[in-house]
């Protein structure tokens, strides 16, 4: 039997605001190393003939970034499956199971979140191999992390009888919600409880059989969403109506808490779900004073703190146990004991119809990126980067005109019926209502400055006539 990694790359990671945002969530960010957490998740997979290329499940808005990050590390995924709407983990895994069974009726699924840290790769690989043997006998295996502290931010799994004596695998006696501190301390002292990692391994068909018995509407919706799925460029787009009709539930609630096939494989693998800034501080390298820093940071008399600078120098003096995170448009300062309250900031921004929780000043597109530099009444200035071979859609605007000034590289500009090439220090003007397109025909990135002027400058003032990326 072949093992098929299924990487779940959904979610917004709101507890890691202002770095993690809806359009650039934590799994796509280089939080712990120079690679994104998604890239690290894929690269730590075991190698060998029994391990297939990964199937990645993500939201529609992240599809091009996921594809580009896989290209950067030289991985060709088995597929990138697009969810039109989030329905939690159980329906997503069901859709992946149907997708895999169409290719391999004996497929074993290794289900992994895209945003966890695992430091002991050898231990991780050994746990996978053991779980795979259990899955061959029809078990639904989950990986229970051997606890090192009375954590109140994790759910727990209590083990039952051993599946095989001295093997480190047990029947699941029960799942436990996130406890209070006293209860968590009791769990740690008991020795029979594990942190619930949210990682699973089972046969695709076994999972669907259990889901069909426990949540028939969910299984039917996932099956229909895959049956009616269609290819969109290099992506597999699930049928929107079918997948949206599915109940929203996690694997734990939908299946694992009710099935008799659940087993837990004990895993002491240096695991962390990086669910908050304090968790990130714990997994990062720290200096002699206990500080984890990144970027242009100056520290004086600071201890046990996390300080991260993304766009300018950040100086911190005479404090302890703080989290300080700077981005181009937002700054977070909080005590490490209060990082769980960061999500309330996101709720505040959302309620106020603001955008700082949605995207950064630098916004990624399939052709490259743009970054806001300045904005005022009736004008906006952006820095635009177009990758080699990148091509913006043929489009027009009802309410704004645009001036383009090439800083470096070569631009092919379509404006009405005219097509011209522009090089460094050359510029052009796009009138209101004129069909236009920007392309990079060269082998180096194209950098230009765009000055917009008009009565309305929103991104929704775009009418697309033709787009190689098939956006609407």
Keywords:
472 residues; alpha/beta; Spore Coat Polysaccharide Biosynthesis Protein SpsA, Chain A; Jelly Rolls; five-stranded mixed β-barrel; 34% strand
Can you describe this structure?
This protein has eleven helices and 30 strands. It is of the alpha/beta class. It has three domains: 3-272, Spore Coat Polysaccharide Biosynthesis Protein SpsA, Chain A (Alpha-Beta Complex), CATH 3.90.550.10; 285-346, no CATH class; 362-466, Sandwich (Jelly Rolls), CATH 2.60.120. The chain has a six-stranded antiparallel beta sheet, with no helix packed on it. A five-stranded mixed beta barrel has the order 6-9-7-8-12. Helix 3 packs across helix 7.
Task: Let me know the number of strands.
Answer: 30
The helical percent reads 10-25%
What CATH architecture of the largest domain would you give? Alpha-Beta Complex
Low-confidence stretches: none
Q: What is the C-alpha radius of gyration, as a whole number of Å?
A: 25 Å
Instruction: Give the termini separation.
Output: 41 Å
- Shape, principal axes of CA atoms: globular
Please tell me the total number of domains.
3
**Average pLDDT rating:** 95
Number of helices: 11
CATH fold type of the largest domain: Spore Coat Polysaccharide Biosynthesis Protein SpsA, Chain A
% residues in beta strands: 25-35%
Trace the largest sheet across and list its strands: 20-21-22-29-24-27
Q: Which class do the helix and strand fractions yield?
A: alpha/beta
CATH domain class of the largest domain? Alpha Beta
